[in-house]
Amino acid sequence: MASEGTKFPVPPRKGRQGFADRRKKKVMYEYRKLLNKERKKKGGTAAAAATGSAGVEEGYTEQKGDGNTQAGGEEQKRFKKKPPVTAFSRQQQEFKKKQAEKEQRIKEAEQRKEDRIKAAAKHNKERWKRHVQLGKKNKKGQPVMANRIEFLLNKIQKEASST
């Protein structure tokens, strides 16, 4: 009844797979964009034809014969077609590459954290050692001057050796 009296017809509803269609279109768009970039990088098919490597650009690999030689002594060459690189396989490769980079970053972060912890432990140990040495007191409660002088001597020697 609503469709009989309305001026504007109601468009049919899209299926439930609209998001999948958009995703497929986006993947195809990215794939075509990447192909165009590669063509521009290689200089197009005209440059490949001029060099005589058109078969290689179209996805063919060069294979030499299996020991059979022609009468002239030249090796026979055959072309075998490479499997096409699909958008899915390209995405898989990118994912693996990103995973490897992520693992590398995590390992580096863990290494930096371990180094920082070791440096902090070393620093705290040195501070504690210095505290114990300089904190010693004699019977009257005064600091032991031999420890103070030894500490200053070590400090001066360390500075002299570093410069």
UniProtKB/TrEMBL annotation:
Residues 1-141 are annotated as: Disordered. Residues 119-140 have a biased composition (Basic residues). Residues 27-37, 93-118 have a biased composition (Basic and acidic residues). Pfam families: rRNA_processing. Residues 44-55 have a biased composition (Low complexity). This is rRNA-processing protein FYV7. The lineage of its organism: Eukaryota, Metazoa, Chordata, Cephalochordata, Leptocardii.
